Amino acid sequence: MSHSNRDKDGNPLIQRYTPNERSNHWITAICFILLAVSGLAMFHPAMAWMAMFLGGGQWTRILHPFIGLVMFVSFAVLVLRFWHHNHIDAADKQWMKQIGDVLNNREDKLPKIGMYNAGQKMLFFVLIASMCGLLLSGIVIWRAYFAFYFPIEIVRLAALLHAFSAFVLICSIVVHIYAAFWVKGSIGAMIRGTVTYGWARKHHPRWFEEVVRKNRD
């Protein structure tokens, strides 16, 4: 992680995400949006109009599972990239106990945060669980290729699990997007790849210190 260029005010910037990490994130995000709208279109007649995003009902049924596989693979690569930043440690447990300080932006009172805070780490594991639930249940209910291998009871249970996992995933992503807007500078980090020294020092001081130390070496 090296020094990058400077922002428009001349402040030095730190690289938070590489171009590869960013494109990996946005491929997953685009797949998620397409899957959410097409899945909702198939889930309930009131949302059937959303099928237009993938070219109508027939195309929606054909494309949805394939896009699902692309999202799962892309997400799996993200998990491998960021796994080592998401171990829950003692500072995370303390962060959770001080959730009042978190919600009131009293970051000076919190333990020093690394690359991600405890909330982001928990979201990471919820996303992994719901993605695995979607993949396994999705294969069972994929009519064109796999559904006929399973008894109807299993297919019905898989359809329920698929809907439940999708609900958890959509809620989690809503929280993820809300948090990205709430912590100013987060979206810029995932678009440009860089953050200011001030942002890093304020929101992720332990990570900031590690990056500065590496730059000195």
Automatic annotation (TrEMBL):
GO annotations of cellular component type: formate dehydrogenase complex; plasma membrane
InterPro entries for the chain: Cyt_b561_bac/Ni-Hgenase, Di-haem_cyt_TM, FDH_cytochrome_b556_subunit, Formate_DH_gsu
UniProt-annotated location(s): Cell membrane
Cofactor(s) needed for function: heme
Cytochrome b561 bacterial/Ni-hydrogenase domain span: 16-193
Record keywords: Cell membrane, Electron transport, Heme, Iron, Membrane, Metal-binding, Transmembrane, Transmembrane helix, Transport
Membrane topology designation: Multi-pass membrane protein
Alphabetized GO MF terms: electron transfer activity; formate dehydrogenase (NAD+) activity; formate dehydrogenase (quinone) activity; metal ion binding
The keyword Transcription is annotated on this UniProt entry: no
GO biological process, one term: anaerobic respiration
Major location (coarse): membrane
Transmembrane segments annotated in the record for this chain: 26-50, 62-83, 122-145, 157-183
Pfam families assigned: Ni_hydr_CYTB
SUPFAM superfamilies: Transmembrane di-heme cytochromes
Family in the record: Belongs to the formate dehydrogenase gamma subunit family.
Record-given protein name: Formate dehydrogenase subunit gamma
Taxonomic source organism: Duganella alba
